[in-house]
Amino acid sequence: MAGINDDSYDIGQSVLTGEVYIDGTSRIREIESYESTWPYLIVTYNPNYVVEQYAATYVNEDGTQLYQTYVDRGTTPPDPVALELIETPTKSSTSQYTFEFSGWNEISSVMTGPRTITATYTSSIRTYTVTWYAREAVPLATT
Predict the structure, then answer these.
(1) Are 28 and 53 in contact (CB under 8 A)?
(2) Residues 29, 35: Cα–Cα separation, whole Å
């Protein structure tokens, strides 16, 4: 949606002014989005019908943020990997262990405030194959 400025030229951002009343249930993030997108629009609503939302921040084990969404109070946060919103988190192998993503901590309880949800991993001992050679291309043994 584009607009026309005072000089009758097209502008990339429209300007919406006036007043609007939201009748019924709405989420706090929606209201904040309206107010930030259209600063000249006066948005009013019944506060008894506003669904409170909290930030669910998904991080990797090292603290790197992977995803953030807002979740309604009293509901469980979604699994962004299962919903294909993000790629499966990874953790680098060490010389001794390999790691495989196993899920998220703090994802099964309902939201009652902002929450950081951390990727969890299972580890398995890394194995190596060693081959001894008598000379080039003549193996003696492999373990």
Answers:
(1) yes
(2) 10
pLDDT in tens, 30-89: 888 888 888 888 888 888 888 999 999 999 999 999 999 999 999 999 999 999 999 999
Cβ count within 10 A of residue 89: 23
- Tracing tokens 């299962």 back to the chain, one arrives at 82
Short-list 109, 34, 106, 110, CA closest to 72: 110
Enclosing H/E stretch for 35: helix 28-37
Longest dimension (CA), the chain: 87
Q: For residue 99, what are its two tokens?
A: 């790691």
What tokens does 87 get?
A: 């790629």
- CA-based nearest residue to 113, from 50, 56, 68: 56
Tell which wins on pLDDT, 108 or 137: 108
Instruction: For domain 53-130, give the fold.
Output: Immunoglobulin-like (2.60.40)
| pLDDT on residue 1 | 53
User: In 3D, which of 62, 74, 51 has the Cα closest to residue 119?
Assistant: 62
For the chain, the domains span 1-51, 53-130
